[in-house]
Amino acid sequence: HLPGKKIEALCRIDADSQKLLISAARRFSLSARGYDKVLLIARTIADLDESETIATSHLAEALQYRTSGIFDGVR
């Protein structure tokens, strides 16, 4: 488990992505841990896309996986 500060350092996002993530966190009642998990999933998607930065599309895909329940029970 990575502390939140390290996750923020590894998973930098732009202002538009930040707005999307905050909106989704409110809408889906994401906990701090859930918020961090979405960022880590988005970082993985960006890595698979060979992107140095997390784009809004990466974040949107991560939110889709997170809110679909596909990772329920996965640590």
- Separate helix tally: 4
Cα distance spanning the termini: 9 Å
3D shape: globular
Alpha-beta classification: mainly alpha
The tally of beta strands, per DSSP, is 0
- Element-by-element helix/strand order: HHHH
Mean of all residue-level pLDDT scores: 87
- Content of β-strand: under 5%
Query: Could you give a short account of the major beta sheet?
Result: none
Poorly predicted ranges: none
Count of spatially separate domains: 1
Rg from alpha-carbon coordinates: 11 Å
| Percent of residues in helices | 55-70%
Q: What this model shows, in words?
A:
The protein is built from four helices and no strands. Helix 2 (15-27) runs parallel beside helix 4. The chain is mostly helical and 75 residues long. The protein is 67% helix and 0% strand. It has one domain (4-68).
